[in-house]
Amino acid sequence: MSEYINITLPDGAVRQFSKGISALDIAKSISEGLARKILAADVEGNITDATRPIEHDAHLKLLTWDDTGGKNTFWHSSAHLMAEAIETMFPGVKFWVGPPVDNGFYYDVDLGDQSITEEDLRKLEVKMAELAKQNNTYTRKAVPKAEAIQYFSEKGDEYKLDLLQGLEDGEITFYTQGKFTDLCRGPHIPHTGFIKAIKLTNIAGAYWKGDEKNKQLTRIYGVTFPIQKQLDEYLHMLEEAKKRDHRKLGKELSIFTLDDDVGQGLILWLPNGTVVIEELEKLAKETENEAGYKRVVTPHIAKESMYITSGHLPYYKDSMYPPMEMDGEKYYLRSMNCPHHHKIFAAEPKSFRDLPYRIAEYGTVYRYEQSGELFGLMRVRCLHMNDAHIYCTKEQFNDEFRAVNDMYLKYFKIFGIDKYVMRLSLHSPDKLGIKYVNEPELWLETEAMVRNVLKESNIPYVEVQDEAAFYGPKIDVQIYSVIGREFTLATNQVDFSQGRSFKLQYNTSDNKTDTPLIIHRAPLGTHERFIGFLLEHYAGKFPVWLAPLQVKILPISDKFMEYAKSVLHQLKKADIRAEIDERSEKVGKKIRDTELLRVPYMLVIGEKEMNENKVAVRRQGKGDLGTKNISEFISEVTEEIKERREE
Ligand SMILES: [Zn+2]
Ligand SMILES: [Zn+2]
């Protein structure tokens, strides 16, 4: 008697199949083309082999390269393929673990007394490609624990035996492809033929289990793709990213520096970087002013009691600097601005007429990041945040939240950010009261409100379960630089809990009191991360409005210095950041040096220009724009700055 099961597809369609059918066969029933792209399957929220039989009614999502689950399965399967190649080249090698990572995969291996070189990586790539072409299936086999122990004891593999110790009997599986068998939970792609492009990227040392008392293993990194073109594009992006490295550009363009005496992760902004900061703050102030925000200024430290009220102590303690003692009290450097802003809300009585109450500050916060985690401007210990808090009623939430989204979109346009995704993190009902404030209805209500606004604004977003903040749903904003690298820019949070902890209240229209909802938002993130992003995004060639130096005047010889000075004077009067190159170098060299400093405009001045009261204009990257009257040039550049044009 054949039995049937109901399969619910992501679009809600329910289809009937024979019990035991695989996701791959379901894909084939839809189209052969689709089946060729299926890497794994999401069955009831568990990612499994696409070839596994499905025995019960289930929600099914077929995973391809475009799904994180599909991509991770592909990369983990590539780690097995690499292991197979390593075993052929280094007999006796032992394997620890080989997980997928953000951009590819690695395997930690014990090569015994053998060692591996860059040249070996190239040979391994060739071997992997040869094995991939064999279209070997990844075959799963469940084995009793005793059998698994016996297998690896005979192989003399103490690493896999160690892994086995932590596993329950009955859950142990082996995966075999070609001549390689590994202890593995899976899942894996159907066969090796999917892996079409291979690059082994790096060799590093890694202590076993991350403990420096243990033996050092060799970690081999790689990345693979289903299409050769994708690998070519990826390698091109890496090369571009290297050229655009914000630490390199930050130094070349005198944007920021670090000093051992000041301390790790504490950025010193040089005059050029400070110009960029001030322009960003000017933009934020204009935009926030227009959107009805008021500005506040608050101290960088506060007493312990405030952070106990906010819950930062003890929950966030590890990320804070240790306290300072003064007058018998403990003070902490703040890691967030919110509590100070809540106190400003509470400072004067509020009525419904005062809401929405929006207060903004470029707030300085201090966070303890482990020294190993510190990285240029991306991970630092002192940050300047484009912070603001909006206190509103539930009825006002939709409009307020939409206005915040609109502000993001406005900024994205100004900075030419074409690709972005918002990640909506939701709560998990079974963790209410543990990981999340126990307010089931408020959770559903606020999550629905946020989802609604995202849908209405046509903003691309993905939902993730069980990643919300303690006190409400949050939205992480991911942006992509022009070369396609992803950055986490900022987090927006909806908060129905802190208002209560701080006993924030307003008088309602019917003379009762209520607690406001709070929106935490920071569309420009922090200066540190955002300027780091912009350096890469623009490759150091800031648009004129952001450029530390906007115009460089290049006199052909000292004879024209007086005229150059009068041009400089007129530019400065028009609020344009300008300088004269006073060196007695040839003009060709002056142009080349100015190009290197990515100054947007160069004004070349010689006999003809002086006599006609003109300037010869050159634009970075565009070359000669011809001669212009000074007033004409000034009005054009002023317009470009005012409109914050990209070029
Ligand atoms: Zn595996
Ligand atoms: Zn906040």
Estimated helix fraction? 25-40%
Bound molecules: zinc ion
- Report the radius of gyration as a whole number of Å: 30 Å
Number of strands: 33
Strand order of the largest sheet: 16-20-21-28-25-24-22-23
Give the integer mean of the pLDDT values.
Answer: 93
Query: What structural category characterises the helix and strand content?
Result: alpha+beta
Report the sheet with the most strands, covering strand number, pairing sense and barrel closure: 8 strands, mixed
Count of helical stretches = 20
Strand content: 25-35%
**What gross morphology would you assign?**
globular
What is the CA-CA span between the terminal residues? 71 Å
Low-confidence stretches: none
